[in-house]
């Protein structure tokens, strides 16, 4: 099987636009969670009024404005999630130094970028306009701005990539599925290079209303937004919705070494499973998460004791964090070097950025890659008092220096879909 390595990274997150800025703020224990107060009357009617929002400003300041990344004509054609994808893909390709012009290279470069929800704003506005004004109120750009696979489409059009073009949409597992599936396309020879990840921007009152109705969102911290996303903490009370994108350039190993590309890490394993249990609730014993992690390690030909770090899905919900914690302990506890739960290193970066839904898995796989590159474990913000049974090392509040050779990055989604990536240092 052909080996797959990571040669480029790009992201737009609530911590900033661009990898450098995002990663620096993550290690400085910065938070991207703010209040939604002031965003319109509809937000005020919703019990959860906190969100992880991409900060607005110029690219030099590590902030977001569309005009730094695309001309006004394209901005008009594109959903915001697709704009985040375009920007992150540009950064990742520049980082990888991959700007091919030869036909063969263009044909062997593909794109897989997914989104969990897509352009809710467009669907909402057009529904209202159609209801009130009929046919003539529907924009000719309605469909291209609505479709989820258009992020991948726009990236391929901009760069001329003619390889596989695909979009996963598996709720909050989207990002990991996009990257994992792309790695398989390279392994099987369908492409030599893949631009892969997830993008999301549904900071819309209807999305908040829906998740709040499903009782998924944090509602107890509206006056203290930066404290609201608190994975593993006993006072956690639901997730905080965030927006952004994470994109990786994946490359076949020999292709990368032949052009002397910088290699961040290797994608060693990818495990997929299903809880087969409930629409939104996890199985208490964490069966799905356990199976996904076990499968990722099997592909990597690695054992649980080799895992130095787990970037948990942990969204700060009561049941989800507990199920994943149970699964991680079941997988690792008792293995050599992991006699005690405190020997297991786990963190959830959602404390800092919130839950980016379809982009979460991609952004977190990037954080995991950077943890490997810099030998540092990113912190779990706001973890004051772990719940009973939470005895691992959750890297509470501040980063920890620690050699990381092998790591897992987990993502789980509504519908019971679970996936895990196994990333390893390429040394
Ligand atoms: C939808 O309508 C709102 C309110 O008029 C506006 O602020 C927003 O930009 C519109 N979104 C799109 C995608 O047209
Ligand atoms: C598996 O995915 C489901 C999706 O609903 C999620 O709720 C659950 O937390 C995941 N499993 C575990 C053990 O975390
Ligand atoms: C977890 O990190 C600590 C340092 O923070 C380290 O001493 C320990 O060995 C790590 N555990 C594992 C299993 O790597």
Automatic annotation (TrEMBL):
Cite the Gene3D superfamilies for this sequence.
3.40.47.10
- List of catalytic residues: 172
| Classification via InterPro entries | 3-oxoacyl-ACP_synth-2, Beta-ketoacyl_synthase, Ketoacyl_synth_AS, Ketoacyl_synth_C, Ketoacyl_synth_N, PKS_Beta-ketoAc_synthase_dom, Thiolase-like
Superkingdom, natural source: Eukaryota
Recorded GO terms, molecular function? 3-oxoacyl-[acyl-carrier-protein] synthase activity
* Pathway involvement of the protein, from the record: Lipid metabolism; fatty acid biosynthesis
Q: Where is the Ketosynthase family 3 (KS3) domain?
A: 1-425
> Could you tell me the Gene Ontology terms of the biological process aspect for this record?
fatty acid biosynthetic process
- CDD domains on file: KAS_I_II
**Pfam families under this entry?**
ketoacyl-synt (PF00109), Ketoacyl-synt_C (PF02801)
- On whether Lipid metabolism is a keyword of this UniProt record, the answer is yes
Cite a GO CC annotation: mitochondrion
SMART domains reported for this sequence: PKS_KS (SM00825)
Keywords, sorted A to Z = Acyltransferase, Fatty acid biosynthesis, Fatty acid metabolism, Lipid biosynthesis, Lipid metabolism, Transferase
- Family membership, please give it: Belongs to the thiolase-like superfamily. Beta-ketoacyl-ACP synthases family.
Question: What protein does this entry describe?
Answer: 3-oxoacyl-[acyl-carrier-protein] synthase
Origin species, per record, is: Friedmanniomyces endolithicus
């Amino acid at each position: 099987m052909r080996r797959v390595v990571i040669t480029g990274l790009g992201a737009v997150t609530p911590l900033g636009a661009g990898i450098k800025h995002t990663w620096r703020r993550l290690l400085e224990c910065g938070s991207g969670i703010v209040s939604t107060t002031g965003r319109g009357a509809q937000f005020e009617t919703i019990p959860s009024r906190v969100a992880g929002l991409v900060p607005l400003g110029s690219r030099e300041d590590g902030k977001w404005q569309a005009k730094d990344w695309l001309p006004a004509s394209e901005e008009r054609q594109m959903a915001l999630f697709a704009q985040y994808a375009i920007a992150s893909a540009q950064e990742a390709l520049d980082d990888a130094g991959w700007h091919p012009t030869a036909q063969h290279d263009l044909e062997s470069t593909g794109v897989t970028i997914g989104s969990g929800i897509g352009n809710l704003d467009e669907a909402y506005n057009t529904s209202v306009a159609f209801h009130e004004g009929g046919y003539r109120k529907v924009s000719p750009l309605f469909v291209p701005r609505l479709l989820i696979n258009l992020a991948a489409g726009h990236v391929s059009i901009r760069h001329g990539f003619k390889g596989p073009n695909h979009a996963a949409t598996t709720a909050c597992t989207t990002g990991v599925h996009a990257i994992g599936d792309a790695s398989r396309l390279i392994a099987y020879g369908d492409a030599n290079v893949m631009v892969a990840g997830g993008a999301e921007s549904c900071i819309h009152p209807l999305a908040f209303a829906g998740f709040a109705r499903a009782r998924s969102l944090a509602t107890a911290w509206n006056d203290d937004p930066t404290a609201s996303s608190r994975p593993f903490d006993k006072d956690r009370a639901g997730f905080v919705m965030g927006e952004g994108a994470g994109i990786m350039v994946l490359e076949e190993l020999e292709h990368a070494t032949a052009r002397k590309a910088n290699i961040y890490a290797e994608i060693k394993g990818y495990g997929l499973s299903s809880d087969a249990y409930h629409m939104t609730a996890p199985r208490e014993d964490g069966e799905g998460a356990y199976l996904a992690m076990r499968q990722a390690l099997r592909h990597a030909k690695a054992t649980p004791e080799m895992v130095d770090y787990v970037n948990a899905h942990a969204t700060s919900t009561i049941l989800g964090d507990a199920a994943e914690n149970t699964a991680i302990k079941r997988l690792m506890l008792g293995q050599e070097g992991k006699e005690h739960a405190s020997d297991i290193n786990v963190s959830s970066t959602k404390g800092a950025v919130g839950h980016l839904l379809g982009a979460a898995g991609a952004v977190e796989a990037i954080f995991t890659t950077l943890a490997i590159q810099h030998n540092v474990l990113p912190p779990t913000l706001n973890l004051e008092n772990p719940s009973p049974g939470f005895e691992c090392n959750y890297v509470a509040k501040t980063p920890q220096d620690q050699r990381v050779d092998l790591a897992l990055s987990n993502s789980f989604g509504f519908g019971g879909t679970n996936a895990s990536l196994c990333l390893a240092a390429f040394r």
